[in-house]
Amino acid sequence: MTTTALPEAPMQRPYNFSAGPSAIADEVLAQAAAEMLDWPDAEGHSSGVGVMEMSHRGKDFISIYEATQAALRELLAVPSNFRILFMQGGGLAENAIVPMNLSTLRNASSAKGVVDFVLTGSWSHKSHREAGKYCTANVAASNALDGHTTLPAASSWRLDRNTSYVHLCTNETISGVEVHELPDLQALGCDAPLVIDFSSHVASRPVDWSRLGLAFGGAQKNLGPAGLTVVVIRDDLLGHALPICPSAFDYKLVADNQSMYNTPPTYAIYIAGLVFQWLKRQGGIAGIETRNIAKARLLYDAIDGSSLYENRVAANCRSRMNVPFFLKDESRNDAFLAGAKGHGLLSLKGHKSVGGMRASIYNAMPIAGVQALVDYMREFEQSGARTD
Ligand SMILES: *Cc1c(COP(=O)(O)O)cnc(C)c1O
Asked: Which pLDDT value is given to residue 106?
């Protein structure tokens, strides 16, 4: 038996504003480090192995899997007629997997189904483009003419009466547009299910399952490490896969095999389970949502109240998770980023397609981190005012 010293976490790590993969709470990482060589079960008994080394079919890993499923179901108040699937491939794979499973829901006899897409930014554009390989992918609405800074009102969506489902990205990570209330498709005269990509705001706020058929998201923004993809699906939507759908991506097969049709991303599931325990200690979704609202308000108020910074997203759809902003004097961008790094504020550079800056303030970002950013932004603005 060998003993290895565990790495010590630095006293205070810098604040990480990365859009994804992104910050994970120190407590979670410290627990994972402590359990790396020998995972103890719920009663504290040594298993003798780390989680990465366990069979996914053994009782230790099954207990981790079941606890992680139960915690997510409780946190997100997922009703009993929805299944939670732990898959792989990320959000982008789901752009193909969803149409391969659901696109002929309404027209099973025809080879090609019809699906409506609401385009609100890069991620929904990617979903639409990929789905076109498997179905007739319509554009029901788009905010492209507004530079992806608005949200087309649901009443303006042009929904096809044959659509098998309606796709909506509820938080556009790059442009910073968030859907704050899910549309009620039935009230719009459409009885197809709503499918959402909630990759970048899952577990930051409650979900209204009564308006949804399916939600999917990669874990690496708010749930844990990359590698795990969470799919929550209403059970009547299982069992409609196209014949070409790979078996490992057939939702019914995945559900019937408790997400173990093939080996699931075991370590990522374990870390997500630790994140869910941490979330419960933060007061669950209600507690974290209150904190997320306060963080977003602090940052948007600082931007709106300054004469150097601006955010261009319409007030009714500004994201609480991803806050893109620009310096009105773009020649100061590099100085801003260098100074931020010096202040322990990392990964603030905007996405290359948008430019400027972006602060991703997911669940694991504490208020103190946003306060440190706002303080730095003010200091930077004032230093420029003095030298100009
Ligand atoms: C990050 C992200 C994705 C992409 O996920 P991958 O894991 O890279 O496939 C998809 N949709 C949204 C909204 C995202 O933020």
From this structure: 87
Distance (angstroms) between ligand 1 centre and the Cα of 85 equals 17
pLDDT greater than 90 at residue 108: no
Q: How far is the CA of 137 from the centre of ligand 1 (A)?
A: 20
Question: Is pLDDT at 388 greater than 60 in this prediction?
Answer: no
Give 42-90 pLDDT, tens digit per residue.
899 999 999 999 999 999 999 999 999 999 999 999 999 999 999 999 9
166-176 pLDDT, tens digit each: 999 999 999 99
Active site residue: 39, 116, 157, 197, which one?
197
Q: How far is the CA of 220 from the centre of ligand 1 (A)?
A: 8
CATH 3.90.1150.10 domain residues, the chain: 284-387
Tokens at residue 365, please? 């970002």
Q: Whose CA is nearest to atom 4 of ligand 1?
A: 91
- In ligand 1, the atom with minimum distance to the C-alpha of 92 is 9
Test site for ligand 1: of 130, 199, 351, most ligand atoms within 8 A of the Cβ = 199
For residue 342, with 0-12 CB atoms within 10 Å meaning exposed, 13-18 middle and 19 or more buried, which class applies? exposed
CA-based nearest residue to 195, from 170, 209, 219, 212: 212
24: number of Cβ within 10 Å: 23
**pTM value > 0.85:** yes
Q: In CATH, what number does 59-278 get?
A: 3.40.640.10
- Listed in sequence order, the residues at least 6 apart from 344 whose beta carbon sits closer than 8 Å to its beta carbon are 12, 14, 15, 372
Query: Which residue out of 123, 250, 252, 349 is catalytically annotated?
Result: 123
Regarding the beta carbon of 123 and ligand 1, being less than 6 Å apart is answered yes
Give pLDDT, residue 1.
Answer: 46
Per CATH, which fold does 284-387 belong to?
Answer: Aspartate Aminotransferase, domain 1 (3.90.1150)
The residues of the chain that CATH labels 3.40.640.10 are 59-278
Catalytic, out of 39, 116, 157, 221: 221
String of DSSP letters for 8-30: PPPSSPPEE--SSS----HHHHH
- 123 belongs to the catalytic site: yes
Count how many residues are written for the chain: 388
From 94, 173, 179, 320, give the residue whose CB has the most ligand 1 atoms within 8 Å, as the site to mutate: 173
